[in-house]
Amino acid sequence: MTKALITWGGWEGHEPDKVAAIFDTMLRDAGIDTAVTDSLDCFDDGERLKTYDLIVPVWTMSDLSREAATNVSEAVAHGTGIAGCHGGMCDAFRGSPLWQFITGANWVAHPGGDGVKHWITITSDDPLVAGIDGFDVETEQYYLHVDPANNVLATSRTDVVTWYHSPNGAVEMPVAWTRAWGLGRVYYNSLGHQASVIAGGPAHEMLRRGLLWAAQSKAAAAGQDVTQFQSPGNHW
Questions:
Q1: The CATH number of the domain where 53 resides is what?
Q2: Cβ-based neighbour number of residue 46 at 10 Å
Q3: How far apart are CA 126 and CA 220, in angstroms?
């Protein structure tokens, strides 16, 4: 049976327990066996991490040791998927550049704070967003420093709120993307400031598809050798 690990905690303003519960329901409804924990101790056993098909982090800020980050990196590189949303994945563990490299971005601001009305543009014909039209949201608009290698699925335009970044001009800020880390699949969606934002509608469907896609990572990687991506030396 496909197995997923959901770990939640960190800043309580992002309602990590409620977001984790939404993810748990998504996965269980798809027949995936879930283990849910409110501790980061689950990252201490690197070999056990590799037994999961999917890791779903829901940790805004907080601290992650170098060893734990390496364990996650190795699990994903060997085929375990990783997927999540908002600050629970790309504003997690600000002191870990390796985590930011795995996930494809790090949060730097949300100009205007909460309640900013903005439009989500679907920019791909990928099955993860096929049939989903652009839509309005009224929540935080994340400004992220993103990896140019990300496969972007959706964006939002950054001219909604004027602030110190505005003289640089508006950009299409990535909202959702996929990427690879070794043999592993990575999915991220910046929506999800609170559980209500992703409890239903197109944001919920995008995340549901993303989590299920990432959960198929190990099966997709079967028979491949991760050493094809390795070279001698410490890379971070």
A1: 3.40.50.880
A2: 16
A3: 17
